[in-house]
Design brief:
About 65% of the residues lie in helices and about 20% in strands. The protein contains one helix and three strands; from the N terminus they run E-E-E-H. It has a three-stranded antiparallel β-sheet with strand order 1-2-3. The longest helix is centred in the middle third of the chain and has 45 residues.
Length: about 70
């Protein structure tokens, strides 16, 4: 058995399980797109952090190399 949620005609709540479902295809599609965009942003931030770390490592190695060749 399901019932409408007041003020939200596209949402239904299963009275037995308590699960709320969205019946609007456009709203579900929009949610999925926003979720994918957020995941891509998180992945991009991870990649940026990884690149920063690697660059820092390269700089440290370069400093060590220059220091050792200077003596």
């Amino acid at each position: 058995m399901a019932g409408n949620i007041n003020g939200h005609p596209d949402f239904f709540k299963d009275t037995r399980s308590g699960v709320i479902s969205n019946t609007s295809d456009a709203a579900r599609r929009s949610y999925r797109e926003k979720k994918q965009q957020a995941m891509r942003q998180v992945e991009s931030q991870y990649e940026i952090q990884s690149l920063k770390s690697e660059l820092s490592e390269v700089k440290e190695l370069l400093h060590q190399l220059l220091k050792n060749n200077g003596t």
